[in-house]
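Here is this case:
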Amino acid sequence: MGSDRQLFEGRYSDGQSARAITVHGEMRADGLVFWPADESAPFQDGRITWPYATLTTADNLRSTDADVLVHDVSSPGASLYVTDRTFIRSLTHRAQQTSPRAWLWRFTKPALAILAVLSGLVGAVYLFDFSPARALASQMPQAMRERMATSLLQGLTKNRKRCTTPAGDAA
């Protein structure tokens, strides 16, 4: 991973107002640590630390991205905007949940679960020779089934000439 510390500059918003302030920070072994660039706008505790395990990003990160919007789940609404490719590459290594592979798995796992359930249902239908049409038909009264059959035949033969040849009658 190289050095345990890497400096960066970004824009921080607390999510409580539209105001964003310029911050300086560093990527340490335990997380992102940043502080105001202008001492006239200090944070309550002087510095903010966001552990890597609690970080999320607005989009799927790629090493070619020019900027990133980072959020900390323990600070609702707060965000850190950084325009540094080196920062982005380091972030995907230090906070594995922001990597492209993690994003892929985030959406693949539910899809695989749905696929497994559907496969199980299809397998059960095949194994037990279940036919929804047969099941529905068995619940219908005989008179209704006969009316439906007559209606279907009338719809299929409507405006058709009747076959009156001896071969047709024999059929």
About this structure: Residues 164 and 170 are 10 Å apart (CA to CA). The two ends are 83 Å apart (CA to CA). The beta strands are 6-13, 21-27, 31-36, 48-51, 55-57, 68-72, 79-82.
